[in-house]
Design a protein that fits this description.
alpha+beta; Glutaredoxin; 2 domains; 6 helices; 4 strands; 29% helix
Length: 170
């Protein structure tokens, strides 16, 4: 169990309970909040929802700044150079999460497309081993069987140094 200040935000159950998956072309998110009352909802969003979003979207860089601007704002930067600014002045945390999900969240179809196979090496028939198509090449038809099953024909022959000793002894 994590210890320290606010440990529940670092538990696996809490981080995994986040529902928001971002679009694949979202690269950076910049959250600017202030110490004023209008920014309280964004501060709650950063405290409660950003750890879950970061856990679910590990390739997205999320940065927070304080008092950089005089108003709370969320900037979303996409991979194609597009930039979206969301005004979150006097909004609550759930409202911000809903707006953020509509702007940068992936739809059901995009989420299904982005699901990767657990072991992509199984698709390539040249990969062998634990995560490969099959464990050993001897399981493929037309290949030499494993020496553990059928001994190699030259395994019983004497080695070169044993031949020298036999020649000098005789």
């Amino acid at each position: 169990m994590p210890t320290g200040r606010f440990p529940f935000r670092r538990t696996f159950e809490y981080l995994n309970s986040g529902k928001l998956i971002l679009k694949s072309d979202v690269k950076n998110v910049l959250l600017n909040y202030t110490t004023k009352q209008e920014s309280l909802g964004l501060r709650n969003f950063i405290y409660k929802d950003v750890p879950q979003i970061q856990y679910k979207n590990r390739t997205v860089q999320i940065m927070t700044t304080r008092n950089r601007l005089s108003y709370p704002v969320v900037h979303i930067f996409f991979g194609n150079g597009k930039k979206v600014a969301m005004d979150v002045d006097s909004k609550t945390g759930p409202e911000i999460l809903e707006m953020f999900g509509k702007v940068a969240g992936a739809t059901e179809m995009e989420q299904k497309d982005s699901v990767k196979e657990k072991y992509p090496g199984r698709l390539n028939p040249a990969n062998f081993g634990r995560f490969g198509h099959c464990y050993c090449i001897c399981q493929k038809p037309g290949q030499r069987p494993c020496t553990a099953i059928v001994p190699h024909p030259e395994a019983k022959k004497p080695k070169f140094w044993q031949l020298k000793e036999e020649a000098s002894a005789g």
